[in-house]
Amino acid sequence: MPLGLRKKKNKSRESSNLVENEEVSGHAGAGKSAVNGGGVGGLPPPPASLRPKLVFHTQLAHGSPTGRIEGFTNVKELYSKIAEAFNLSPDEILFCTLNTHKIDMEKLLGGQIGLEDFIFAHIKGIKKEVEVHKTEDALGLTITDNGAGYAFIKRIKEGSVVDGVKVICVGDHIESINGKNIVGMRHYEVARMLKELPKDQSFTLKLMEPMKAFEMLEPRSRGGGGKSSGEGKIGTGRETLRLRSKGPATVEEMPNEFEEKAVKKVDDLLESYMGIRDTELAATMVEVGRDKKNPDEFAMALDQALGDFAFPDEFVFDVWGAIGDAKQGRF
Questions:
Q1: pLDDT for 136-149, tens place per residue?
Q2: Which H, E and C letters describe the chain, residue by residue?
Q3: For the chain, what percent of residues have pLDDT higher than 70?
Q4: pTM for this one?
């Protein structure tokens, strides 16, 4: 099948997991095997009782005791475990950051968690409603989502239309656009809606900002627009827990240099072409393209693995080229 991908149809109790006065340092015991997954070397998976239990430490970003969570295989289950630990509803959690309580988009929890990472959960805070006049075709927003139905702002371009609206901040969850509820939509759908809004007209956003402690108030636009010493790095441990939308979570080695560079470049291409950032999606695309021999074969594999997306042909070519450059060490 040649390039030209088609879009397919888809679609209490008080917790005992809090640890008072515990030092804020992540910890998890782990072995190299799948979590709720298959065995090694073709052998059947070990019984559940013998599989390694990965225990992660967590806090609410605005301040809380330390909690311990385990037994999750995807982001939705992770949020449920955090909510259970703090006696919350899972839909109160907007997103999580790793090893910092700050709204730092370079530390956003994506598809991988280092086994030594400490998880900070950012929950719903103040509701805001703002009217924006679209004077340019591009608003200057980059959208991502939490994998559980909430799209939020990951980056605001300096000097852009939205940069002039000071009440809109990085980390804000977008609840509705012109009265249309978008909870449950993926980031690429929200980005497309914003892009298609007519120029020279006003529109209304209903936003939800993350709850902040007073000492955590920061500049509004910190979104990782510049270079960061931690950019592209995932976690602090030598191994990571890879969360997948489909299939079991697995314990894997930290990404090697090829993977880090390729994922970063593909994530940049996602932002350029689609107005989104999604390291899990970028990592999946790199994984799909690792052993493909030509762009058409790569396009077919993408269609199989990611049929929910309709990628432009030129985007697929550029991603294929980025993966090839990473293999050859040309970054």
A1: 999 999 999 988 89
A2: CCCCCCCCCCCCCCCCCEECCCCCCCCCCCCCCECCCCCCCCCCCCCHHHCCCCCEEEEECCCCCEEEECCCCCHHHHHHHHHHHCCCCHHHEEEEEECCCCCCHHHECCCEEECCCEEEEEEEEEEEEEEEEECCCCCCEEEEECCCCCEEEEEECCCCCHHHCCCCCCCCEEEEECCEECCCCCHHHHHHHHHHCCCCEEEEEEEEEECCCHHHCCCCCCCCCCCCCCCCCCCCCCEEEECCCCCCCEEEECCCHHHHHHHHHHHHHHHHHHCECCHHHHHHHHHHHCCCCCHHHHHHHHHHHCCCCCCCHHHHHHHHHHHHHHHCCCC
A3: 69
A4: 0.67
